[in-house]
Amino acid sequence: MELEPDTEAYLEYYARRPENLRIDETIRKLPGLLSPEAKEADTLGFASALGSFDLCEDLGAFVEANTGVEKVALDPGRASRFLKELARYYGALDVGITRLEPYHIYSILGRKERRGKAGRLSHSFALAFTVEMNRRFIAAAPAVPVVMESSKQYANAALIALQLKNFIARLGYDARAHIDGNYHVIAPLVARDAGLGEIGRMGLLMTPSQGPRVRISIVSTDLPLIPDERVGDSSMIRFCRICKRCAENCPSRAISFSDREQLDGAYRWKINMDSCFRYWNIVGTDCGRCLAVCPYSHPNTGLHKLIRILLRRAPLLHYPFLWLETIFYGRKPVQGPLPNWIPPETG
Ligand code: SF4
Ligand code: SF4
Description:
Shape: globular
Helix content: 40-55%
Largest sheet: 4 strands, antiparallel
Number of strands: 8
Mean pLDDT: 94
Bound molecules: iron/sulfur cluster
Oligomer: single chain
C-alpha cells in the first residue's frame, strides 16, 4: 500500500511478485483504512483511532534498548518471575516467556524504511503478553468502535512493552519492544510458544480466558530467562473444527470452512488475507467481526470459566455447548449497549 506507482521500489517489487499486482491495485483504488470516504467513516471515531496509531508510530523511535549500563548478574528464575509480574503490574493480562526460534522472525519486514529488509534478532528469549479488548466495543464490529478499541489497545500494549524494554536495558541487557507496525517477530507464534494460547480458525491467537479478544506485544532480549512450558490446548482446535462461527460471519469470506491443512510444515488454518484486507479498505476499520462472534470472546465470568474448563476436559461436550451457544447467543455477534458518547456524531 505504501508503494507509489512507477517508482523504483514499485517496479522492483512487482517484477519480483507479479501475482500480487492485480489485487494490490484493486485495493489501492478503495477508500482505505480510516479514510473519510470509507463505508463506516466517522470523523471523531476515526480521529481517535488515528491518534492511537500515531502514538504507536511515534513510539517506534524507542523500540530498541539503548544502554551503556554494565550487565547485572541475575538468577534467570528470579529475573523471569519479576519480569512477568512487572508486565502484569504495568497492565498486561496473560504473560509468558519462550526461547526465540528462527521461525518466529519475519523473513522480510514491511513498512517504511524497514520494508524489504530481512528480520534479524540476536536475542535468545522473548516475553509475550496480551492486553484485553473491551467486549462491547468489539461487538460493534465492523463499525467504528472496533477500530477505536483495537488502536487503543495497540497503544496500551506498546507502552507496556517499552517500559519492559527500558527495565531490561537498565539491567545492562539488550532488548527490543515489538509493537504495532514495528515487529521483527510474528507475535501470535511467539505468544503461542510462550504458552498463551492456540492459533484458531481465524488465524489469530486465542487465549483460554479471552479468546481472540486480545492484542499482543513482545519484548525480545538477551537477558537469560526461563521459558514457560507450552502445554497446548487441543480442545480449542477441536472446538474450532466444529464451530465455524467466524467463517460464517466473515463479510469477505476470508476464513476457511475446511479443516486445517499442512502449510509451511505445520497444520494450521490460513485466512485469505487479501480478501480480509480488501474489506478493511472498503469499511475503513479493521472489521473484527470474527473476533466479535467467537464463543471464546465471551467475558471470562464464572459460567464461561466453567464451560471453558469442561471444554478442555470433556470433548464430548463440544457439540452440546455449541448448541447452547446458538440458543443463548444466536449465530451472529451480540451487540450490547455502548457508552452514550459512542458512536460519536459525524462532523
Ligand atoms: S469462532 Fe469458532 S471456529 Fe472461529 S476461532 Fe472462534 S471458536 Fe474457532
Ligand atoms: S477481520 Fe473481518 S474480514 Fe477479516 S477475517 Fe475477520 S471477519 Fe473476515
